[in-house]
Q: What sequence folds into this?
């Protein structure tokens, strides 16, 4: 299963139907009870023994011990790897900002250091910033279904990359995930049932207590938004400030709290197929609006560039270029749209190489942070344990081909990719013991700031609108730009509003919109020395 996200490697992220919401309220008592509700047994805050992560690192590390099962806290405990960067202006320190980098499956001990400079300057000055590898992930007590790294690599190499093409590849994908599920069930079946979003929300509250804050100040991106919304409804009185950037519609995540078999996957319910297709369309249009100096894949006009891309995809289905199959290329395109700079420029270069029949070079990984485990194991089973156990997905492999064709009909290659992104859930062996499925509108102590990017390939803007509508008291800030999360596709305007809100609770005015600082690509140089003013057009959001 591929869960895309904001850094190289794996990460991850609609209108409310009134009748479904009304129907789900009948189940509220059962859902809260099943999730431990608001009455889980009291658990002492974990102790954090902070030490420098490694010699010379500006980050401190600690390990938190928490219950595996909050309904039975006296039984098994698990460990959470935690990381902190102290406030740079300690004399004006307000408290701690807890950060989740998304996924599911994002290791905070790696991604927070990589994302640290993107936080607003005043936030870095006035808050300790703390993150952690959520339960089941990375350097915490992790879901790992292989005995050795070589075994994991062999499993991964044995299935088609990205989108399977044809019945034989589809069967190979399902067979690989059936094998993965058997391995996971043998290794630690108990852990698989206790890595839900609600479990992690309780861990988050324990970390809040451990850092000494009376209320939570939180920043969540992508999957971190559904985690934040879950916390806000489990512990509404403990919310001091909460920024949710690039949102998941809670009703899409929970399939409207229905116990019926889901008709669509999580990502198709979110509308991610259409959203990613719209961003790809903008990528090709903006690329074709400049020359090859501005975008290496440009064919001289938007239409010619779109046609070239479609021709390349058809060609790769029949004739891969080295290891660059159609499936791998589509997966690379989808994940490369997440970060505009340098992601879009690098993607254009790879597409040019493939168009010319040359094997493309993958984007380099970001430099490793100064932490004890800068490259922890984050195999697909870690994201699967959270997503498949927490969010309903179709269990019948026979429905996938038709579902793919329907998605492709409305969203092209993006529809094919996002259909298959949850294929691992078909045979996943566990359902989370503690799932929070609503309600989502419990009044919080303070309002929540929801940030949505207009052209987001990983969480649709419509999901940000839905999140703002679901929560009892939320304000939507619109980022008129491109890429997945405003945090790592920066807008000085967004940062200013986030900073003001996190520091003193001031929300942006209703309906506020902000522009991205650096638009994708650059316009071609004017011919003949006449200033045409075209340089500003690449950043125009239509």
A:
């Amino acid at each position: 299963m591929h869960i895309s996200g904001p850094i190289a490697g794996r990460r991850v992220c609609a209108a409310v139907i009134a009748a479904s919401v009304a129907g789900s309220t009948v189940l509220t008592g059962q859902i809260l009870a099943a999730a431990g509700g608001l009455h889980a047994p009291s658990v002492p805050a974990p102790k954090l023994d902070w030490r420098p992560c490694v010699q010379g690192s500006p980050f401190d590390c600690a390990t938190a011990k928490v219950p595996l099962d909050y309904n039975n806290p006296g039984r098994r405990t698990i460990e959470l790897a935690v990381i902190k960067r102290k406030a740079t202006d300690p004399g004006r320190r307000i408290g701690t900002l807890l950060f989740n980098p998304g996924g599911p499956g994002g290791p905070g001990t790696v991604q927070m250091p990589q994302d640290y400079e993107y936080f607003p300057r005043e936030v870095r000055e006035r808050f300790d910033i703390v993150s952690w590898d959520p339960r089941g992930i990375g350097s915490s007590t992790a879901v790992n279904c292989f005995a050795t790294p070589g075994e994991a690599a062999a499993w991964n190499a044995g299935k088609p990359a990205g989108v399977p093409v044809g019945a034989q590849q589809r069967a190979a994908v399902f067979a690989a995930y059936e094998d993965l599920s058997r391995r996971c069930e043998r290794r630690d079946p108990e852990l698989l049932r206790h890595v839900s979003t609600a479990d992690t929300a309780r861990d988050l509250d324990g970390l809040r207590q451990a850092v000494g804050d009376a209320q939570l100040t939180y920043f969540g991106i992508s999957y971190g938004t559904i985690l934040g919304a879950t916390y806000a409804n489990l512990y509404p009185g403990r919310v001091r400030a909460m920024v949710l950037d690039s949102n998941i519609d809670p009703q899409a995540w929970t399939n409207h709290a229905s116990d019926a078999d889901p008709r669509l996957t999580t990502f198709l319910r979110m509308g991610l197929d259409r959203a990613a297709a719209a961003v790809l369309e903008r990528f090709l249009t903006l690329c074709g609006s400049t020359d090859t100096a501005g975008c290496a894949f440009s064919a001289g006009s938007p239409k010619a560039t779109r046609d070239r891309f479609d021709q390349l995809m058809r060609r790769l289905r029949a004739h891969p270029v080295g290891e660059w199959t159609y499936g791998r290329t589509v997966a690379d395109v989808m994940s490369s749209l997440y970060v505009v700079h340098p992601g879009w420029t690098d993607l254009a270069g790879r597409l040019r190489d493939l168009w010319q029949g040359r094997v493309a070079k993958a984007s380099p990984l970001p430099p490793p942070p100064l932490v004890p485990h800068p490259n922890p194991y984050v195999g697909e089973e870690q994201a699967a344990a959270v997503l498949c156990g927490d969010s309903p997905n179709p269990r019948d492999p026979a429905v996938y081909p038709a579902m793919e064709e329907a998605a492709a009909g409305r969203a092209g290659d993006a529809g094919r990719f996002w259909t298959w992104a949850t294929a691992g859930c078909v045979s996943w062996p566990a359902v989370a013991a503690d799932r929070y499925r609503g309600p989502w509108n419990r009044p919080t102590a303070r309002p929540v700031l929801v940030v949505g990017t207009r052209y987001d390939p990983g969480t649709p803007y419509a999901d940000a609108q839905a999140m703002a509508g679901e929560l009892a008291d939320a304000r939507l800030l619109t980022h008129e730009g491109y890429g997945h999360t405003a945090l790592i596709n920066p807008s000085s305007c967004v940062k200013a509003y986030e900073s003001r809100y996190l520091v003193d609770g001031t929300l942006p005015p209703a309906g506020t919109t902000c522009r991205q600082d650096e638009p994708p690509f650059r316009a071609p140089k004017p011919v003949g020395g006449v200033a045409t003013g075209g340089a500003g057009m690449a950043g125009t959001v239509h």
